[in-house]
Write a structure and sequence with these properties.
By secondary structure, the chain is mainly α. The protein is about 85% helix and about 0% strand. The chain has one domain. It contains twelve helices and no strands. Helix 2 crosses helix 3. The protein is globular and about 80 Å long.
Amino acid sequence: MNEQGGSSRGLISDAEFIRKCLIVLGIVLLTLVLWSLSSVLLLGFGAILVAIIFHSAAEGLVRYLRVPERWSLALASLLILGLFVGLAILFGTQLRSQLTNVIEQLPRALDNFGRAIGVGAVSDDLSNIIDSQTAGGLASRLAGIGGTILGGLADFLLVVVAGLYIAASPKTYVDGLVKLFPPKHHERVRGSLHASGEALKLWLLSQLIAMVCVGVLSTLAYWMIGLPYFYALGLIAGLVDFIPFLGPILGALPAVMIAFTLEGNAALWTIVAVLAIQQIEGNIIFPLVARKVVTIPAALALFAIVAGGILFGSFGLIFGFPLAVVTYVLVKKLYVRETLGEDTPIPGEEETADKPS
């Protein structure tokens, strides 16, 4: 009898051991699959950001212009599309030619900038590298660059279309994600997703306003200084400003390098203008438009952006900060407040509480 009991316990323990091994193996395989699909997941996160933009615009039409809710998203999408089409018609040809000229002038600008800081002519080294390549190798590199550009356009289109689908029916995707968790955690998960979405909306709106202000101010400053291609340089400064901390520096580099190709004090005035615009952005624009945005410690945010760039390349660099926003909100809500019991404000919840019922 004891032998049978011991044999039964041995079989149960063996089955339990095998079950645990299979669970660990499944977790490892799932982690590997998610890692291999990291680029796709980041594009999905980009689609969520696009959906938040469209949904916020639709909410604004419903709240302020009394547009019927069933038509608000379609009207918001048409208005955003019309804005881009209008800008393309007004400035598209000029911007395209100026961007082409900026690209053509960059080697000379790099040389002048290198001489100014004591490095020397940088383009000569680049020319030697290109000349040392075989014709086939150079052709394959050019083909790779063209493929990268086409791939980037395809990814952009995918993100916009997927964002429209998510914005059209956000409840479907939220409910689907919530149901992946046990029923007792549904409310916690739903509340966390809502708070993360509100925090992202606040950050996105403030960031878009800052990008427009930086782009306009940069264009005006470069025009007053006398830089060529000031439309293109202002556009670059505004777009790259989407990346906090690193964006203003990266966006200003083309203008500074182009300024070194000019006579007089153009380079000095360009550097002064860039620093002044960054001070205006940090001390005037953001305090006005980002009063309720989640504030992440600067060092933590900077490391999040750099880590995203190292792990996931350009996508990680672009989405590093908004991913940090989501992580920061989830940690504050699920761990600091609900696990440790500490009283801590959640930006998304604060915004919801301030809305009129």
